[in-house]
Amino acid sequence: MLKEKGILFDVTLCIGCGSCYDACKEANNLPKTSEDFLKDHLSDNTFNVIEQYDDLYARKMCMHCNEPACESVCLVGAITKTSTGAVVYDADKCIGCRYCMQACPHKIPRYEWGTTTPRIRKCNMCAERVSNGLIPACAESCPNEATLYGDMDQLIAIAKRRLQENPDKYYQHIYGLEEAGGGHVLVLSPVPFEQLGYIPELPKESMPEFTKRAMEKIPSVVVGGGIFLGGMYWLTKRKNQIAKEERSKNEN
């Protein structure tokens, strides 16, 4: 059985060289979108960005949630979570509803507005490279080991050890470990994460679980809306169950 994988990004080690930015572009055959990578933004042609905050650099990319909100709202199973933890997208199934863009708590997915056959675009943690025995291009290219790729349990242990051994060096929190139910991208920082543009105060519950709990509290007098939402929830849950069964069959 494959172990779940992930990425650990340490802001204190990032030198802002742009190697991960360039490697991501090359690995995904993405065109040049900015003369200065530090001024680029996430887009349909940029899946990974480096933002500068004074003398610190922060990476922004898909957080590959444990229970992805984007997957839970996709009615056709175009977004799925692999056995290694990566959240991937199948353009052949997508109907272009863009619910995933609205659902993402980290505001990551982008849409190809400038084409007649648009797709949702985001980091897939180099799923194809990983399936061929390689590691994500960003981690492979980092010259200072600011970006690590490996087993999630090992990355969590590394992150916790760094916080414990260097309490004055790090803000005492692992971003991504619990936010929105947690995910497969973890971040360490010397300052509070909102100072680096990360979305603060996300609930610890995953978005699908949060939605489920909210729907359970809908008053019974809202019959029409309740039936509709309940039906949508059942369909989404059933879709996810089928996707999980398909993943299990493929692994066997």
What Rg do the Cα atoms give?
19 Å
- SS content category: alpha+beta
Largest sheet: 3 strands, mixed
Biggest sheet: strands side by side, in what order? Answer: 8-1-9
- Give the proportion of residues in helices: 25-40%
Number of strands: 9
What share of the residues does DSSP label as strand, in percent? 5-15%
How far the N terminus sits from the C terminus, by CA atoms, comes to 9 Å
CATH class: Alpha Beta
What is the tally of helical segments?
8
Domain unit count: 1
Mean pLDDT figure: 88
Question: What is the name of the CATH topology?
Answer: Alpha-Beta Plaits
Write the topology of this structure.
Elements: E1 5-10, H1 19-27, E2 49-53, E3 56-60, H2 69-73, E4 79-81, E5 87-89, H3 99-103, E6 110-111, E7 120-121, H4 127-131, H5 137-141, E8 147-151, H6 152-165, E9 185-188, H7 207-216, H8 223-251
Parallel strand pairs: 1-9
Antiparallel strand pairs: 1-8, 2-3, 4-5, 6-7
